[in-house]
Amino acid sequence: MSNLSSFDLTGKRAIVTGGSRGLGSGSAEGLMEAGASVAIFGTSETVYKKADEFNRKGYPCKGYIADLSDRKKRKDVFEEAVRDLGGLDIIIQAAGIQRRHPVPDFPLEDWYEVLEVNLTAVFDLSQMAIREFLKKDWVPGNPSRGKIINYASVCSFFGGYTIPAYSAAKGGVMQLTKDLCNEVTSKGINVNAVAPGYMETRMNTAFFEDPSYKERYNNITSRIPAGRWGTPDDMKGITCFLSSSASDYLSGCIIPVDGGYLVR
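Given the sequence above, the corresponding structure tokens read:
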């Protein structure tokens, strides 16, 4: 296999949670540009519009409304997507929610909701994907049975500000990724995580619209060696690499995509 062909995803079947917007949409588009068929999960009918947008570009995509806070619903939508795809080779877990409150006022109901969507659902869907991957015949040394790419965060490495539930969940995603790697890599399943830095997405609207965050926004930007916040397009390359056979010997890694923020 040539170096370039090892990045080819033609014929691969992928699920991308959170694929209707933001970084998840960038990851989904990158997979399809590399040849994969993709099922995107979203929380509203916007997911259908995004899938239609991808279809008009000539990409094979289907959208699914998925309430990842509901254990039965996420199981049902996962099984439906796998049936429609005809199997599964890749799962990208980009879905996430954010709740901002000062720590003394942080409601427990918000804590539980963030942990359910951002951490428990990641474990639950990873289990489902692993069971699918294990159905495939596999011989050690051959291309992997499947790829799991979780969305951690730079907050997996350090604390955030007014986001204790989010930071705790993303720290959990980092450790979960390592634990899954230890158990399933020997079975031909790669488990890695990307850790996006500060990104221009709806989740960070407060930084762009709330004047009280202006100073913090400027301080953060000045610390990013790349000189800017990231965009969904910045997730395409790393997603395709971790989804392809080019990364078959890579597992248990948490890879920052942060413009150099962590090393400043």
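The two ends are 38 Å apart (CA to CA). Try to locate this feature in the token string yourself.
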